[in-house]
Specification:
The structure holds 2 protein chains of 2 kinds. By secondary structure, chain A is α+β, with helices and mostly antiparallel strands. Chain A has one domain: Beta-Lactamase (2-Layer Sandwich). Chain A contains 3 helices and 5 strands. The chains are: A alpha+beta, B alpha+beta. Chain A: This is Trafficking protein particle complex subunit 2-like protein.
């Protein structure tokens, strides 16, 4: 399903990033990093117009030849980015949405952990499991 | 046909025909051999279509068409041996589409962030990279160019674009001559090898960078710049590569994408190695060893070994993944560099990097007394896998003179070693100079020297109190976690690295005084008095306090007007005047031996009421020794006291007639009384020494005005009254108001004794309204009568006008008196003269009795009524009962 899933902190540094191990990891890092441009643009544009009634799901950020990048921003400006293979055309918008929702829920659980210091890289096993679940579905 | 319509400017039709042609091309039977031909044709037609779409201002159609085209053609690679051709073709497609797009934008089309020519340029570059890789793989074989050049066409041109030159004229699909085919492929491969791939890629990338810059994609831009840098590296243009990489490194560092930063650093390190650029090499090594790098331990340890080799002035090991040929070139470069003597010192500014040695410096406290040694701690921690040793650690401070105390230079051959991940702390202490009291001392920099003078030495210098590009964020994180975990972390033995906070400056403050200053006074202050504040300075010093100076007075920074209303003096014998200052400064009090005490008095005169704060500042100098150095310290002690100022007494003044009736107007040349009441509101007993009347126009009715308040002591709430008989001299104009003068009281606090100065308080007397009376009548009568004894009363009638006045006088009978005399009379009074009427009253009853009333009337002067005149006459008299002779005596005694 997803080939790369990343959680980016408010200050735009990665809290969590994981990609399909077989491929060039660095490339995914770059892809996620460059997608932040679009995320920021979208967030600032939306913030001006509607205020707090904000849609968290940002939709398709940008398509490259090989991948589709989807973005999601929580209310605390933490960003989730999911990279999907372009060839996977069966994937619908709704499914991406539910993936993000699942990711957000899991992230909230991580934040609720009293031993987690906000801003540190995420090392939670449960979160890892959820992410793996989303990536494994590729089948 | 389409081309024809295009020529005819019929663009809509042209588009239709082109579309038809495009689908026709794809219906052609594709085979390995004619693949290139088909693709070339499709490319041409696609180009045309897209261009027309842009012309028709339907960019979405153009993009969709292009996508379709790419999706269709992506899989048609053609012959495996010439795969690079396909990549080149793809790249060409993207590039031309990017150019079309760009052109359209120039013609007024607006692109958006996610859809701009930059992407196509980037993709084109991407395919060019593919092409290069494939070319590298495939083009190894050919060594000699085939002698009969198969690419040469005798006819001087091809019949169709995209046809293989050696296959011209053949229509069948099977290759006719396998030998010729092979030769042709080989020739193409060799040709491909000569293509300057890197330059192509860089050109495309820089195009893309320019586009992304336009569409506000800083991160996209950085990514492309990294790619450009890498391409330059492949093209062996290391300086340009380093420049680009250096530029983007900052972005990634501030964004804290460590894996990407590490990747870039690794490339940069290779560049620096191949260039044999010592400084860059060292910097990249240090950053790769630092905590931000995500390299594995063994890689780190290899880099660290290399770093130390460089520091020892030796040639480092080659970086992995480097071209063997360039490695050997680099090796010789390095050895040249090493052989070069001089310029082997190097300073690296740390705050722009994330180096492998972290530094935190702090003063032990935010302020130090001048007689304490200033303590400074520097913490160092190495993040690299092997211990690091440094040769020198020095701290520079804002005052250069202290720098000499803040250097650690290990004596002897052993060097200070930093174990991995273990913070080391170095303490310094020095004595502040007395001139720096009240100033701040700041850490301006910390320098650690690595290497030795013999080899190569690198100064790692941190600006301020240490910290690098990542430490502020880390400190924030640490503070977050420590807030959560409370102070439990501090109990640990090991100094917690994250818990160490920077303290980059300290105040030098003066020494704590060992004297006591006591104030004795009796608040509140009374306005205008010389308020005495006693000051006792007791020395608890071990040595003689020399040059004791007192600054006393109103504390600065209070209400603005207080300065003019407050006067301070040391001389309490006389009332000071307004020239005395509000703050006495630097009054010398001499020396003070240990244990002795010193007393002095300060007098304060507060003109206005209200609260004031007074400051007493005692300063002295004393010799002390700090760590064997003798210094002279100035110490001072401040005491403040708040004093309320109140009014000592209230004075009320009123005018009354001789009958003690309050007067609204005062008749000219008629005696009246002035009553003064002094009511003490001071909490302390007051001594009224004397009082005095200063009269202006009015004169005293009595020959000499004598104060009736002399040496009177008033307790709180007590009052003292005085009464003066006054008269307005004749001739004053009537119906005007007139100042009467002022009333002066001299007083002091009773407790101050006779040495305290007398304070003069002046109370202005109220103005009076004058009136003139035409006729003045007054009575001469004894102070009391006695029952059945004759009481002679003489009435005087004075004419004060210039005319003759006729007066009718009648005496009303009274029950209490019998009287003899004129009962009713009409008489004339000449101007300026007076007439007297004599009556003999004979009281019949004892006690206060109403006298028989004289009713007066002036027929010629209606303004003055009889009642107005009657107020001058006594109404009643006290009549004593008829008694014996003894009673008389007792009454007289009373």
């Amino acid at each position: 399903m997803a080939v790369c899933i990343a959680v980016i902190a408010k200050e735009n540094y990665p809290l969590y990033i994981r990609s399909v191990p077989s491929q060039n990891e660095l490339k995914f890092h770059y892809t996620v990093h460059t997608s932040l441009d679009v995320v920021e643009e979208k967030v600032s544009a939306v913030g001006k117009s509607i205020g707090d009634q904000r849609e968290l799901y940002l939709g398709l950020l940008y398509p490259t030849e090989d991948y589709k990048v989807y973005g999601y921003v929580t209310n605390s400006k933490v960003k989730f980015v999911i990279v999907v293979d372009s060839s996977n055309t069966s994937l619908r918008d709704n499914e991406i949405r539910s993936m993000f929702r699942k990711l957000h829920n899991s992230f909230t659980d991580v934040m609720c952990n009293p031993f987690y210091n906000p801003g540190d890289p995420i090392q939670s096993k449960a979160f890892n499991g959820i992410v793996s679940g989303m990536m494994v579905q590729t089948g | 046909m389409a081309f024809l319509s295009e020529l005819k400017q019929d663009t809509q039709n042209a588009l239709k025909y082109y579309r038809a042609a495009y689908s026709l091309v794809h219906e052609l039977r594709a085979h390995e051999t004619n693949m290139l031909e088909i693709k070339t044709m499709a490319g041409f037609i696609n180009y045309k279509i897209c261009r027309l779409c842009f012309q028709h201002n339907t960019p979405l159609d153009a993009i969709a068409q292009f996508r379709k085209h790419i999706d269709l053609c992506k899989k048609k690679i053609g012959s495996a041996e010439l795969a690079f051709e396909h990549s080149a073709w793809m790249s060409k497609q993207f590039q031309s589409f990017g150019e079309l797009f760009d052109e359209a934008i120039k013609l007024g089309l607006t692109a958006i962030q996610t859809q701009n020519p930059g992407f196509y340029y980037q993709q084109a570059a991407c395919y060019s990279q593919d092409r290069k890789q494939m070319a590298q793989q495939l083009c190894q074989a050919g060594t000699t160019y085939p002698s009969p050049d198969p690419l040469d066409t005798q006819s001087g041109g091809l019949d169709f674009y995209g046809q293989r030159p050696w296959r011209q004229g053949h229509q069948s699909i099977d290759p006719t001559d396998p030998e010729k085919e092979k030769m042709g492929i080989l020739a193409l491969q060799i040709k491909e090898r000569d293509v300057p791939h890197s330059e192509l890629i860089i050109a495309l990338l820089s195009n893309a960078v320019a586009q992304f810059k336009k569409y506000k994609c800083p991160r996209m831009k950085s990514h492309l710049m990294v790619q450009m840098g890498e391409e330059y590296y492949h093209a062996k243009d290391y300086t340009k590569a380093l420049k680009l990489l250096d530029y983007v490194m900052c972005d990634y560092r501030t964004e804290r994408w460590w894996p990407l930063l590490t990747a870039i650093l690794t490339t940069a390190l290779r560049c620096a190695y191949l260039m044999a650029s010592v400084k860059d090499y060292i910097i990249y090594c240090m950053e790769l060893l630092g905590r931000a790098s995500t390299l594995k331990e063994e890689q780190k340890s290899r880099i660290e070994k290399n770093l130390f080799k460089v520091l020892m002035n030796k040639v480092p090991e080659a970086e992995a993944e480097c071209d063997p040929s360039s490695v050997s070139a680099a090796r010789s470069l390095w050895s040249d560099r090493m052989a070069l003597s001089g310029s082997n010192e190097l300073t690296v500014e740390m705050q722009d990097y994330i180096p492998f040695i972290q530094c935190k410096a702090r003063f032990q406290s935010p302020s130090f007394h001048v007689d304490q040694p200033i303590q400074l701690q520097v913490f160092l921690r190495a993040d690299c896998p092997h211990p690091v040793s440094f040769t020198k650690l020095s701290v520079s401070l804002s005052n250069q003179e202290y720098n000499q105390w803040c250097v650690v230079e290990p004596s002897g051959p052993e060097t200070r070693t930093l174990s991995p991940w273990k913070p080391e702390s170095y303490s310094f202490s020095f004595v502040a100079r007395t001139e720096d009291v009240g100033r701040k001392v700041e850490i301006t920099g910390v320098e650690v020297m690595l290497g030795s003078d013999g080899g190569r030495c690198v100064f790692l210098s941190w600006r301020g109190a240490g910290g690098d590009a990542a430490s502020t964020q880390e400190a924030l994180q640490a503070s977050r976690s420590s807030r959560r975990w409370g102070r439990g972390a501090e109990a640990r033995q090991e100094p917690d690295w994250d818990g160490v906070t920077l303290q980059h400056s300290t105040m030098i403050i003066s020494r704590v005084p060992k004297i006591s200053v006591q104030l004795s006074h009796q608040p509140p202050a009374l306005s205008n008095e010389m308020y005495r504040i006693g000051l006792t300075v007791q020395s608890q010093e071990d040595a003689v306090a020399r040059d004791v100076r007192l600054t006393a007075g109103l504390k600065p920074g209070q209400e603005a007007g207080l300065g003019q209303n407050t006067h301070v003096t040391l001389d309490g014998s006389a009332v000071c005047d307004d020239s005395a200052p509000a703050l006495l400064t630097e009054v010398p009090l001499g020396d003070l031996k240990p244990g002795e005490q010193l007393q002095t008095c300060v007098f304060v005169r507060c003109v206005s009421t209200g609260p004031r704060v007074f400051l007493f500042h005692v300063a002295y100098s004393i010799d002390t020794a700090v760590e064997g150095r003798r210094i002279v310290c100035r110490c001072h002690k401040d005491e403040t006291v708040a004093v309320e100022t109140v009014v000592p007494f209230d004075v009320s003044v009123k005018f009354v007639s001789t009958k003690f009736e309050p007067l609204e107007q005062v008749a000219v040349d008629v005696p009246f009384l002035l009553m003064t009441d002094v009511l003490s509101s001071s909490p302390w007993p007051l001594l009224l020494s004397s009082s005095q009347l200063q009269l202006l126009t009015v004169t005293s009715n009595t020959p000499q005005l004598q104060s009736q308040l002399q040496q009177v002591v008033l307790q709180t709430g007590e009052g003292a009254s005085e009464c003066f008989c006054l008269r307005v001299p004749p001739g004053a104009s009537s119906n005007s108001t007139m100042a009467t003068g002022q009333y002066i009281l001299s007083w002091r606090r009773k407790c101050y004794g006779s040495d305290g100065p007398l304070i003069q308080t002046t109370v202005p007397l109220p103005h009076v309204v004058l009136e003139s009376v035409p006729l003045y009548i007054y009575a001469d009568l004894p102070s009391f009568g006695r029952v059945r004894e004759s009481l002679p009363v003489r009435y005087h009638i004075e004419n004060r006008t210039a005319q003759l006045q006729e007066v009718e006088i009648a005496v009303d009978p009274s029950d209490a008196f019998m009287f003899s005399g004129l009962k009713q009379v009409r008489l004339r009074v000449l101007p300026g003269t007076e007439q007297a009427l004599l009556y003999n009253f004979y009281p019949l009853m004892a006690g206060y009795q109403t006298l028989p009333q004289l009713s007066l009337s002036l027929p010629h002067c209606p303004t003055a009524s009889g009642t107005a005149l009657r107020r001058f006459l006594p109404q009643r008299i006290f009549v004593k009962p008829q008694g014996r002779q003894a009673d008389d005596a007792s009454i007289a005694a009373a």
